[in-house]
């Protein structure tokens, strides 16, 4: 029989996330013990996805693939790292990519 001092799952409150950045494996002394396993899983998943598909830049009207690739590279090099641990593309909407099934 529950007492007034007992805590139930119905009253449990989780602390809100205070970070803006997701760091799944962290680093240093608090390194995630499943890091290597999850990295292998990620590579296996990507290999399965890219077995039948590829990613390419979304072409702007009248743009050639060669110029689209250069535009994506330039956009990817324009990074914002002020106040964050990770580099973030300043204008990610300029680097739109599409998923294409391989013939």
Structural notes for this entry:
The protein is of the alpha+beta class and 103 residues long. It has one domain. It has two helices and four strands; from the N terminus they run H-E-H-E-E-E. The strands form two sheets. It has a two-stranded antiparallel ribbon with strand order 1-4. A two-stranded antiparallel sheet has the order 2-3. A hairpin with a 7-residue loop joins strand 2 and strand 3. The longest helix is centred in the middle third of the chain and has 18 residues. The chain is extended.
Question: What's a quick, concise take on this entry?
Answer:
This protein has 103 residues and is an alpha+beta fold.
The H/E string reads: HEHEEE
Helix tally equals 2
* Low-pLDDT ranges: none
Number of strands: 4
Mind telling me the C-alpha Rg? Answer: 22 Å
Shape assignment: extended
What number of domains? 1
Q: In what order do the strands lie side by side in the largest sheet?
A: 1-4
Estimate the helix proportion, in percent.
25-40%
Taking all residues together, what is the mean pLDDT?
80
- Tell me the strand percentage band: 5-15%
**Main β-sheet description:** 2 strands, antiparallel
What structural category characterises the helix and strand content?
alpha+beta
- CA distance, first residue to last residue: 65 Å
List the helices and strands and how they pair.
Elements: H1 35-52, E1 53-57, H2 65-77, E2 79-80, E3 88-89, E4 97-101
Antiparallel strand pairs: 1-4, 2-3
């Amino acid at each position: 029989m529950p007492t007034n001092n007992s805590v139930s799952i119905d009253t449990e409150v989780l602390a809100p996330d205070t970070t803006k950045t997701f760091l799944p494996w962290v680093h240093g002394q608090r390194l995630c013990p499943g890091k290597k396993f999850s990295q292998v899983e990620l590579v296996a998943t990507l290999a399965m996805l890219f077995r039948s598909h590829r990613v390419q830049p979304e072409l702007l009207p009248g743009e050639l693939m060669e110029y689209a690739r250069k535009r994506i590279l330039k956009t990817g090099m324009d990074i914002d790292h002020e106040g964050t641990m990770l580099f973030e593309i300043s204008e990610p909407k300029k680097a739109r990519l599409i998923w294409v099934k391989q013939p």
